[in-house]
């Protein structure tokens, strides 16, 4: 659980830097956790499954960037 929160914070921070979004720790965790879910769903639809920390990090960052992009388009 703690590892997932730390990974979510890292994913959210990296995606925030890539997408030029400012936010605090809680926002980074939420973006990272939701983004990791989005990324895993999208990548599983195309047949890619992340095994290992680096692959999970990449999938999470891509999913978080998609989540931020969708949020900008909808709101």
Automatic annotation (TrEMBL):
The subcellular localization recorded is:
Cell membrane
Q: Which residues cross the membrane?
A: 26-46, 53-71
Q: Name one GO cellular component term.
A: plasma membrane
- Which topology term describes how it sits in the membrane? Multi-pass membrane protein
Keyword entries, A-Z: Cell membrane, Membrane, Transmembrane, Transmembrane helix
Q: Which InterPro entries match?
A: Transgly_assoc
Pfam families tied to this protein: Transgly_assoc
Of which family is this protein a member?
Belongs to the UPF0410 family.
Indicate what this protein is called per its UniProt record: Transglycosylase
Q: Which organism is it from?
A: Pusillibacter faecalis
